[in-house]
Specification:
Elements (H helix, E strand, L loop, with lengths): L1 H27 L21 E2 L16 E6 L1 E4 L2 E3 L2 E6 L6 E2 L5 E2 L11 E4 L3 E4 L5 E12 L2 E11 L4 E5 L1 E3 L4 E3 L3 E4 L2 E4 L2 E5 L5 E10 L2 E10 L5 E9 L8 E11 L3 E4 L2 E5 L2 E7 L2 E4 L10 E3 L2 E5 L4 E14 L2 E10 L4 E11 L3 E12 L12 E12 L5 E10 L3 H5 L3 H5 L2 E12 L3 E12 L2 E2 L6 E2 L2 E15 L16 E13 L5 E3 L7 E2 L3 E3 L1 H16 L17 H6 L2 E11 L3 E3 L3 E23 L4 E12 L2 E9 L2 E6 L5 E17 L10 E3 L15 E3 L17 E17 L9 E17 L10 E9 L3 E10 L1 E6 L2 E3 L5 E3 L2 E3 L13 E3 L2 E9 L9 E13 L15 H9 L11 E15 L2 E17 L2 E10 L4 E2 L2 E9 L2 E10 L8 E8 L8 E6 L8
Parallel strand pairs: 40-42, 41-46
Antiparallel strand pairs: 1-9, 2-5, 3-4, 3-8, 4-7, 5-6, 8-10, 9-10, 10-11, 11-12, 11-15, 12-17, 13-14, 15-16, 16-18, 17-18, 18-19, 19-20, 20-21, 21-22, 21-23, 22-25, 23-24, 26-28, 27-28, 28-29, 29-30, 30-31, 31-32, 32-33, 33-34, 34-35, 35-38, 36-37, 38-39, 39-43, 43-45, 44-45, 45-46, 45-47, ...
């Protein structure tokens, strides 16, 4: 009985356990327990996931019948928190906000979990596993993790293993892969087909990568990325062409990209337009600029060839580039020639943002002649120094420099640019200025002006080179109103102003004074140097210029070589001067409402270190001129007043488009008085006695400045007598009022200038004994049709002139005596009539006007005319732009647009005509007349042809003519330049052909062929 009862109890207990087991089993049919994926991999697709529910906004009764706004908040994964992507619904017109579907799942913090928040979102849907360890994003998915961002069509994030996997989706309709993963880690950006990346180890594996590295981009099939952001790429290509199908690339089996440093390639070869070339190299490296364009230090590959100046074969411009930092880089180069010549160079560029920028170049060449027979030639040292420094305006001080100094023969034998080779002048200046407060200012500068002279065809060396070196300093006080320092009240005396200007200079030159100017003296002189007049100096200069055209160089007697051997003579020839001026402006007065009257007063003077002494020698009946050294001040003051006004005249036409023509007249007149400083008591002038050859000269002709010909502004070369000048001038302008096109109301007009300026100016000295009226200056300029500009200037002498001196030339001519003809060579009354004169001089006749002598109303002495025209499309006026160019490069392009080829402008044409006439004598003139033509046009958008030529009407020959052809090959460029005519057999027939990659990184990837004045050519 007990057993029966026990069995029944056990059976009942078993049934209860079975019921409980069945119950819990039924409960477990709906959801399996979560299983963590294996560490180090992506969980298989069989692991169930859960879609984030999207509760409709209308489920909340508080939001019914109200406008709603749904905001999508990205999901987040951070230590201890997993927050899925969610949408927040809020009413549009109520302050009550209700969050729908907001949940947070907490988890224990593991050592290998994310160290910061991962933000993710997707357009279509977000699916995450039940434990929140895996998140799958579909449609425009993106992830942000610190500096890392990833965008793709599909992304799977496993925060347990710290890995992310992304890929695109194949669109069968479009037939291509869309939503390619774009991975960015800091500055590195990668366009891929598929990527797997570990956030903790920072390692990844990429399929089909395209990434930008420096100026080029790298593409590969399989890429591995390490923790140092280095890339290891198999079956890679490297190119600077940004097209999907690049024009050229470097194909390598293995390639390593060292982060922010360089690209190292294994065995590679060049592929152009999908055609592999049989030329390859076992290895190569391609550095790319560091941050902020600091550049990369490296070796500079030299050029090679042969040149015709006797130096033989060469290796040129090879060396080393040193990138110190992002602000400065230095380049060391050298040259070596097979016949003993060599050269060194240093160049650097520097830039300090918001402060200054500049560049410096220093070159030295030791040139030896390759002539083995002529052993008398000595080596020639040539040098060049250029420095450019441009500050950014700030503060009170400013320092700038523009230096270009070289030996006379440097450009001739060592420069490789045509424009520098034909250049005959160079100028340099270094300046510093500073203001002190509101009124004071100071500055200093150093200037060097060079004229390299002319090439002697017999020796091949430039001669007659001239160099002037000067240093200037100045100090000044801006004009102030001493009676209105604290603000004026409008009283007349408050406009009284006074200022101060002081300056000085120290100049040296290789122009040694071997000639003395005797223009206008009218008496013989005794001097250790040659006497010459201004006219003779002009004739001498003209004769040397014409002799140069025939292949002869005549030495200038006033020049010595600028070298160390002549340094003592050059320093003894120095000129030290100082100047001062005190300008005073008196109150401005209105006369008759329309006339402005401005009186003034000024005090000025110079300080010299030399002066001239004149002494009449009765025995030789001439004047001896000697030079004395010392400290000699001069001074002068004047009183002046000026009046000006402006009035208008309008002529109404009222035509179809032309409404009226307006004439604007602006006359001005001024008066100035200078007292007499010719008294010997002032020490500025010397009066010669009226004896011998000087007896017939008036007193003012025998009164000479002791600073005559020494420069300055106060008395050098002036008359010194008291003077009262009445200066006059008149300016005219013509404008046309025109109705704009398409205007039907007649109310819209515009002004078109017909004549911008036509002016006449001169002066009259009412106290002068003769030549009271000064030469008259006539000038005009205007702009025609916005494309053509015209400038004109001329000078007219109102007084007559007469010939004197010279050697008469007699020629027996045929003479008709009644019915008989007397042949040439026989006796004739014409034997007493000179046919011409040699070295005949002309002098102005005092108090005899030209019209009184039958020489016309005025005598033309000088005329200059310049006509220029430019025709180009409207886009040529816009600032130049270049893709990928830095701000400094764009500034250089816009500053010198003529040095660059702009394929965006289909055509342009420039024409200029220059005419100059100087009347040396009534029978002798100096004429300059030339026509210059430049232009370019595009055969196609990628082909550009440039032409430059002209014609010299004086020598009846063309000017320098060049023809260029340029081809834009996208990532390549081709340039061909030819000089068919240059006026010199040395430069004629030059040509150059270059085919090179545009990238500065691959600048050695080029093909060049040239023949020029400095190079016999070669590949």
């Amino acid at each position: 009985m007990w057993l029966s009862t026990a069995r029944v109890s056990w059976l009942r207990f078993s049934l209860v356990l079975l019921c409980f087991g069945t119950f819990f089993t039924a409960l477990g049919q709906g959801q399996l327990p979560p299983r963590r994926p294996d560490k180090g991999g992506i969980p298989p697709a069989t692991v169930p996931t859960q879609r984030v529910p999207r509760t409709p906004a209308t489920a909340n009764p508080l939001l019914r019948n109200r406008p709603i706004v749904v905001d999508t908040i990205p999901g987040e994964v951070s230590p201890g928190v997993v927050r899925p992507q969610r949408r927040v619904v809020r009413p549009g017109t109520d302050s009550l906000n209700v969050a729908i579907g907001d949940s947070a799942t907490s988890d224990s913090v593991r050592e290998d979990q994310f160290k910061t928040t991962v933000k993710y979102k997707a357009r279509d849907s977000t699916i995450y596993s039940p434990d929140g360890q895996i998140v799958e994003l579909f449609g425009d998915a993106s992830i942000e993790y610190g500096d890392i961002s990833l965008k793709a069509e599909f992304i799977r994030l496993n925060y347990l293993t710290n890995e992310v996997y992304a890929k695109g989706r194949y669109d069968s309709t479009a037939g291509k892969l869309v939503g390619r993963p774009i991975f960015q880690d800091g500055e590195g950006k990668y366009d891929t087909k598929e990527i797997r990346y570990n956030f903790k180890s920072k390692k990844g594996r990429i399929q089909g990568v395209i990434t930008q590295q420096g100026e080029g981009n790298v593409r590969g099939t399989t890429v591995k990325k390490d923790a140092d952001d280095n890339l290891y790429i198999g079956q890679a290509i490297y190119t600077t062409c940004n097209l999907a199908e690049p024009h050229f690339h470097i194909s390598a089996s293995k390639l390593k990209v060292i982060h922010n440093k360089q690209v190292v390639a294994g065995p590679f070869n060049l592929v152009i337009n999908k055609i592999p070339l049989p030329i390859g190299l076992p290895f190569g490296f391609f550095p790319f600029p560091k941050k902020k364009d600091a550049g990369v230090s490296g070796i500079l590959i030299p050029q090679y060839g042969e040149e015709p100046n006797g130096r033989g074969f060469y290796l040129r411009d090879g060396g080393y580039y040193l990138a110190l930092n992002e602000n400065i880089g230095m380049q060391f180069t050298g040259q070596i020639y097979s016949r003993g010549s060599w050269g060194l160079g240093l160049s650097t560029a520097y830039n300090k943002r918001y402060r200054y920028s500049g560049s410096l170049n220093l070159r030295f060449n030791r040139n030896r002649s390759g002539d083995r027979v002529d052993t008398t030639q000595t080596p020639r040292n040539d040098f060049s120094f250029t420095w450019s420094h441009a500050p950014v305006p700030r503060g009170r001080g400013s320092f700038s420099a523009n230096v270009n100094i070289s030996s006379n023969s440097y450009n001739q034998f060592n420069t490789f640019a045509t424009q520098q080779y034909i250049s005959n002048v160079a100028g340099s200046s270094v300046q510093y200025s500073r203001s002190f407060g509101q009124y004071a200012r100071a500055g200093a500068n150093v200037r060097v002006n060079q004229q390299f002279g002319q090439v002697n065809p017999q020796t091949g060396i430039r001669e007659n080179g001239k160099t002037d070196v000067s240093t200037d300093f100045n100090f000044g006080l801006n004009q102030i109103s001493p009676f209105a320092l604290k603000g004026g009240t409008g009283r007349w005396y408050e406009s009284f102003r006074v200022g101060l200007d002081m300056s000085g200079s120290l100049a040296i030159s290789n122009t040694i004074r071997r000639q003395i100017d005797t223009t206008g003296l009218g008496f013989p002189i005794i001097s250790s140097i040659q006497a010459i007049s201004t006219l003779d100096r002009i004739r001498d200069s003209t004769a040397r210029a014409f002799a140069l055209r025939s292949g002869q160089v005549i030495s200038d007697p006033n020049l010595i070589a600028f070298n160390t051997a002549n340094l003592d003579r050059i320093l003894k020839n120095r000129v030290l001067q100082a100047r001062y001026s005190i300008p005073i402006s008196l109150p401005n007065v209105k006369l008759l409402r329309y006339i402005n009257l401005t009186p003034g007063f000024s005090i000025a003077g110079d300080i010299y270190t030399k002066k001239l002494n004149y002494q009449y020698d009765p025995g030789r009946d001439a004047v001896r001129i000697d030079t004395a050294k010392g400290f000699f001040p001069s001074y002068n003051f004047s009183v002046n007043a000026s009046m000006n006004t402006r009035f208008y005249g309008t002529f109404f036409i009222r035509g179809k488009r032309i409404e009226a023509i307006r004439h604007t007249v602006a006359p001005s007149i001024s008066f100035s008085y200078v007292p007499d400083f010719t008294s010997p008591a002032f020490g500025q002038y010397q009066i010669l006695p009226a004896e011998g050859a000087l007896a017939g000269l008036p007193a003012y002709r025998r009164t000479l400045s002791v600073f005559r010909g020494l420069g300055g502004s106060a008395g050098g070369g002036g008359t010194g007598t008291q003077a009262a000048f009445i200066s006059f001038g008149i300016v005219n302008q013509l404008e046309m009022k025109v109705r704009t096109r398409g205007d039907t109301t007649g109310a819209d007009f515009k002004k078109i200038p017909l004549l911008d300026n036509i002016s006449l100016a001169g002066s009259y000295n009412i106290l002068a004994p003769d030549f009271q009226l000064s030469p008259l200056a006539l000038s005009a300029n205007t702009q025609i049709f916005k494309n053509i500009s015209f400038n004109f200037s001329s000078t007219f002498d109102p007084y007559a002139n007469r010939p004197y001196g010279g050697t008469a030339q007699y020629v027996l001519q045929t003479y008709q005596l009644g019915a008989a003809t007397i042949p040439a060579g026989a006796y004739s009354p014409l034997i007493l009539q000179p046919d011409s004169y040699i070295n005949q001089q002309y002098v102005r006749v005092p108090n005899l006007y030209a019209f009184q002598a039958g020489q016309g109303l005025l005598r033309l002495t000088n005329i200059q005319a310049y006509l220029s025209a430019r025709f180009a499309p409207k886009q040529s006026q816009k600032p130049k732009t270049a893709p990928g160019a830095s701000a400094a490069q764009l500034k250089a392009i816009n500053t010198n647009p003529e040095l660059y080829v702009d394929f965006n402008i289909p055509w342009s044409f420039n024409m200029s005509y220059t005419f100059g006439l100087t009347k040396l004598t009534p029978k002798e003139s100096q004429v300059i007349q030339a026509l210059t033509l430049t232009g370019d046009f595009s055969l196609t958008p990628k082909w550009k042809i440039t032409v430059q030529s002209g014609y010299d009407f004086v020598f009846h020959s063309p000017t320098l003519t060049t023809i260029g052809i340029n081809r834009d090959l996208h990532c390549w460029e081709m340039a061909f330049n030819w000089t068919p005519y240059s006026g010199s057999n040395i430069r004629s027939g030059n040509y150059s052909f270059d085919l090179r990659a545009r990238s500065s990184l691959l600048q050695e990837l080029k093909l060049s062929r040239r023949r020029s004045f400095y190079d016999r050519g070669g590949f």
